Each structure stands twice: as C-alpha cells, then as structure tokens.
Amino acid sequence: MKIVVIGLGYIGLPTAIMFANKGHRVIGVDVNESVIKKLNNADSGVEEPFLQKELEKAVKQGNFIATTEIEPADAFIITVPTPSKGDLWKSCDLTYVIQAVTSILPYLRVNNTVVIESTVAPKTTESEILPLIESVGLQVGENVHLLHCPERVLPGRIIHELVHNDRIIGGVTPSCTEAGIKLYQTFAKGRLIPTDAATAELTKLMENTFRDVNIALANELVKVGETLAIDALKVIELANHHPRVNIHQPGPGVGGHCLAIDPNFIVATAPFVTQLIKEARSINESMPMYILSKVEQIMTQIGGRKITIFGLAYKGNSDDTRESPAMTIYQALQKQVKYEVVAFDPHVSLDFVEKDIKTALTNSDLLLVLTDHSAFQKIASKHTANMRNKLIFDTKGIVKHFDTEVSKIHLGNMHTLKEVSIMRR
Ligand code: SAJ
Questions:
Q1: CATH number assigned to the domain with residue range 2-190, chosen from the 4 options 1.10.760.10, 3.40.50.1580, 3.40.50.720, 3.20.20.70
Q2: Of 315, 321, 369, which is best to mutate to test ligand 1, by the most ligand atoms within 8 angstroms of its C-beta?
Q3: SS3 call for 193
Q4: How far is the CA of 94 from the centre of ligand 1 (A)?
Q5: Residue nearest to atom 27 of ligand 1 (CA)
Q6: 8 Å CB contact between 24 and 63
Q7: Class of domain 290-419
C-alpha cells in the first residue's frame, strides 16, 4: 500500500515509520524543509526511544521518503497540530487540518482512505472535513473512506504504545471504519475498536479531560488541606489505597499540548453544559498564581533575594516546555526586579537555563522545584550546601533530600508556611 502522512511531528513521524517498517511505501510530508532534509538523512532529531533505529531501518529499506510535495496514494493520514484559538472558549483551531486536507484534494482517487489523527472537536470530521472531500466529486462511504483515529501515546513510550495500545477507529460510515481497521492492523497489536467518527472525537477529548478534572480535584484538595491544616499529599496517598480510588497528583498547574488544551474543545462545542470541565480548567490554571503567592510569602518572611527554579519542562524527564506552568512561574518571577531568578533544567537547553547546578544554587534563598525530573530525586546536601537560606519548596513531591539543616515545604504542608524562618548557612 502507498501511504502519505502529512505532518511529521511527534505523532506523524513515528506513525509513518511504523507503516514503512511493515512494508508499506510511505511518503512523509511536512512544510519544514530542514526537517525533511534531516529525515532523509535518517536523523529523527528528537529524543524518543527506538525512533531513531526504526527511522534508519525505514530509510535504508527505501520504504520512507520525506518531502514537501503531496502525491497520489492509497491512504492519507493527517497528523498536523490543532492549537487552541484565541477566542472566548479557546476552541479548536482547524487551520492546519483544513490546509492539509485541501492539499490532498487534487490527488484523491476512488477507494482512497483519509484519516484524521489530529485531535479535533466533536463532529469535526463529519461536518468540516466530509464536505471538503466530497467537493471533488467523491462520496464518503461509497467510493472514498473518511475516519477519525486518535492517538493515545505517551512521549517516551511512543513506539511501544503505538503498537500495543488499544485504538479507537471512528469511521464516518461503517465501511469507512472497516477501511481504517484494515489500514491500522498492519502494525497495531492492540485492539482496534470500531465506532463512529464523532464518538471517537469525543472519546479522545474525554480521556485527557478525565485527567485534567482529576488533577484539579487534587489541586483543590491542596487548598483544602492548607485551610484545615491537614496534609493533602498524605490524604491522597491513603485514599488511593482504596481499590476503586485513584486521585492524581497536585502540582504547580497542568501543561503540555493535550490536557491544558483538549478540554476546551469540548467546552467550546457545548459551553452551557460543561460547568465541571470549565471549573477544572480554571482550578488548574489558578495553580501557577497560587504557587507564586506562596513564593512571595516565603521570600518576604525570610527577606530572600535569589530564587533557583528546578525544572521548566511541563512534565518530568521531558524537554518540552509547551504550556508549561513552570515557564509561567519563571517568567512572572523574572519580571520582579527584587528577585534574582536562576533556572536549572537538565533536559531543557534554552539560552537562559543555567547548566551548572552548583552555580544555580550558590547564595540562593529558595530552591523552587516545578518539574518532577527523576534527577531531582537525587538532590543532596552537596548541592544545597552553598545556599544562603537552606529552603526547598517542592511543588511536585519529587525531592527526597534528607538533611535536618534544610527546611522542606511541599503541597501537603502549606499550612506550616508561616513558621518558615531564615535558615542561614
Ligand atoms: N500532571 C499533574 N498531576 C498528575 C499527572 C499529571 O499535575 O497526577 C500534570 C503534568 O505535570 C503535566 C500535565 O499534567 O503538566 C500533563 O501530563 P500528562 O502526563 O498527564 O499528559 P500528557 O499531556 O503528556 O499526555 C497525555 C496522555 N494522556 C493520558 O495519559 C490520558 C497521553 O496518553 C496522550 O496521548 C496525550 O495526552 C495526547 O496527545 O493527548
């Protein structure tokens, strides 16, 4: 089969490679010339386990070619980004999807399959994409197949999860679903679950919304714990011993390109019946401000000046800073002239990030942990020795540092904040 994959990002590229390594001829299309060049030289350019090896295999066997030009194929898979629009409800911006679908129209032939993998608002495939496909004289469900087939993979495990996760295959008609199952079963080992396009779209959005709402519950619990002087982290730990309870972890907010964006796509399509989703979003969005107010309180109490931020990525062991609450907090503190703010993140290589952990912490008054990178578990006395005030504010519950000289504030003991005093070295 010949397959064109449009958008060679963190989903499109591994998907294209998986098809190629199952013997399909895959044409990967992207607008970014430098990405194309790298890929044709078998350089994936991203840190993702097994991807580089799989790409090398696909390029060597001649089954994968990257280009900026579309060409005729049996199947077209759209994996372009769908950011949030700047409107009232932060609805789904379909610009790239529409551009991608429009670009394949001249090449569409009878019996082709068109897959929208990009995350989209409910009913988009049927109401926005179907009319485009049919504008060239084809009939969806009759002589061309159209479906929504969302991805569910976790960065860091993309290759494994692409193959092994169950997948929702949502055709606009049952024959479209069948065509989708035929296509994906060439590499997927998980169950391919048939449904319709709109159900698939809402399912994908609800998966991420479930996590967003659950995290909001944990974040609200932190505020309750502070008010009642009860350790919220302990409450979560104990509650999760119940066999049917799984409260997520609180933190400085929710980042990334999925949880912070997808719930709004549901709200935007049904704004008057989505109070809980909206409230969860606003609780999670309030967290950077909440953390900032606590930092302010601490710094005032100790008369501190230098703040060292550990972690800018939106989640642990990732270099991704998209929608990162840590970035929001860093930027807000950075604007305040009364503070000297230094950021340290072993995964993020932005210009302003301090690379030397010792320099980052020397004369610091507060070590503010905003990301749960595994490396931060190993923060030890040798790192904190040169701090001016030995104080750690760990918003992710990751630091295991044991040293009676060091005070530790976390989201379970916020009620003790007023007792924080100067711990000069
Ligand atoms: N977070 C918390 N507390 C938690 C879990 C996460 O505050 O208990 C925060 C993280 O720190 C981060 C944000 O939430 O800022 C999102 O992290 P995540 O690991 O929950 O999710 P993503 O956005 O990296 O990936 C999600 C995944 N969805 C689920 O696990 C249901 C992934 O499987 C999806 O493929 C991906 O969204 C996507 O593309 O939709």
A1: 3.40.50.720
A2: 315
A3: strand
A4: 22
A5: 154
A6: yes
A7: alpha beta
With 0-12 / 13-18 / 19 or more C-beta atoms within 10 angstroms meaning exposed / middle / buried, residue 424 is exposed
The rounded Å distance from CA 107 to ligand 1 centre is 37
Answer whether residue 425 shows pLDDT above 70: no
- The candidate with the shortest Cα–Cα distance to 188, out of 202, 207, 205, 168, is 168
Q: Residues with catalytic annotation?
A: 204, 258
Q: Mean pLDDT in the chain?
A: 96
- Residue 276: Cβ within 10 Å count: 12
Which residue ranges make up each domain of the chain?
2-190, 205-283, 290-419
pLDDT tens across 259-273, in order? 999 999 999 999 999
Kindly give the number of the ligand 1 atom that is closest to the alpha carbon of 314.
15
Bigger pLDDT: 163 or 319? Answer: 163
Range 399-422 burial, b when 16+ CB lie within 10 A, else e: bebeeeebbbbbbbbbeeeeebee
pLDDT in tens, 112-134: 999 999 999 999 999 999 999 99
CA of 134 to the centre of ligand 1 (A): 36
Which residue, judged by its Cα, is nearest atom 3 of ligand 1? 249
pLDDT value for 156:
86
pLDDT for residue 133: 98
